[in-house]
Amino acid sequence: MERHRKGITNLEDILQRARRLDESALATLAKEYYSTIFRYFYYRTKTREDSEDLTAEVFLRVVSAIESQKGNFLPWLFRIAKNLLTDYYRKRGRLREISLEEIGNKLLPGVHKYDKNILQPEDIKKMLSFLTDEQREVITLKFLEDYSNEEIAQTMNKSVGAIKALQFRGLSTLRAILKKEGQYKNEKTN
Asked: 135 with 114: CB under 8 angstroms?
């Protein structure tokens, strides 16, 4: 199967087969997008088990609703995931918690440098908690999932300008936190 940077090149053919509930097409979609959806939940839930359960539920809903799916598949898939995440927090009645164990340099490449021995995953988790939900989502999709601003805009149903603004404000907040903690080194001065 041919693939490009973000997904399957023959996606429309696979979707047509999936809409007819073709098992191999549904399996192909699950195989292709499972890890992306799992990571979406992993960075937003407290436990790995919650992430696995929510991911499985997304694909159950895909199977039950794929016959009527219209438009771009990936934003539709993320809307299902986002709705499930909203239900997840509503049922738990608490603020979102983010599990970020292997984020490393992907979070803010080229924006800051930090000593990995000083800034631990719990520090990153704490920093991201200062962002709005939308800023956190943009930062996650952009720097962890490597989506373009256009793809993020489509996924979040916003303009590219709004995505750039959310990204700028989120990165500015993170930079300010790092400066306050003395861990930010401006690359221009190094």
From this structure: no
Task: Dig out the tokens for 69 from the structure.
Answer: 């799916």
Residue spans per domain, the chain: 3-92, 104-189
The letter for the amino acid at 139 is I
pLDDT in tens, the chain (190 residues): 333 345 567 889 999 999 999 999 999 999 999 998 998 888 788 788 888 999 999 999 999 999 999 888 988 999 999 899 888 877 776 444 443 433 444 454 444 444 444 555 556 667 777 888 888 888 878 876 778 888 888 888 899 999 999 999 988 888 887 777 665 555 444 4
Domain 104-189 is found in CATH 1.10.10.1800:
no
Predicted TM-score (pTM) of this structure = 0.58
Residues of the chain by 3-state class (helix, strand, coil), percent to 5: 65, 0, 30
Q: Collapsing DSSP states into helix, strand and coil, what is residue 7?
A: strand
C-alpha dihedral (109, 112, 116, 119), degrees to nearest 10 = -120
Query: What's the distance, CA 168 to chain centroid?
Result: 17
Rounded distance, CA 109 to CA 120, Å? 16
